[in-house]
Amino acid sequence: MNMVTKLLLCFASVLFTVSVYATPVDTYEFKSADNQERALSLAHQLRCPQCQNQNLVDSNSPVAQDLRFEVYKMVDSGKADSEIIDFMTSRYGDFVLYKPKLDAKTYVLWLGPAGLLVFGLLIGFIFVRRQRIQPAEAEALTPEQQAELDALLNKDKANK
């Protein structure tokens, strides 16, 4: 193969690869630009139940597409944000919220990191304090050990 053919094949493969990653575009017509902004804001706040790590806007799963259209319809019908979020949580649970509400079921989720930080700091403080309180005390030598040490030191001085 000559160089031009190789370049054309490389260029064609890049074009086909880019088209594979293209995402479908929602073609929902909103009644107003405000409704569109509100709907997109809500869809960014809600998690896709199937993908688990993407919001409704970023996900391409069929479930996310359906939920996105549901959010769009509810916004255009005039429902409040809280009503839409309540509908989604009643249907899919608190999992669809990126920022779950603070209630008895989510105390560990909200307060757990702060509790672990305080616990770690307390353990670190106790460890450092114990190290500082215990002075490095030299063990007292017995008279026999002291005599042996003196003999070794005197022998070393005599050799110099």
From TrEMBL:
The chain crosses the membrane at residues 107-128. Keywords: Heme, Iron, Membrane, Metal-binding, Signal, Transmembrane, Transmembrane helix. The keyword Amino-acid biosynthesis does not apply. Residues 14-153 form the CcmH/CycL/Ccl2/NrfF N-terminal domain. The keyword Transmembrane applies. Pfam families: CcmH (PF03918). Residues 1-22 form the signal peptide. Belongs to the CcmH/CycL/Ccl2/NrfF family. Possible subunit of a heme lyase. This is Formate-dependent nitrite reductase complex subunit.
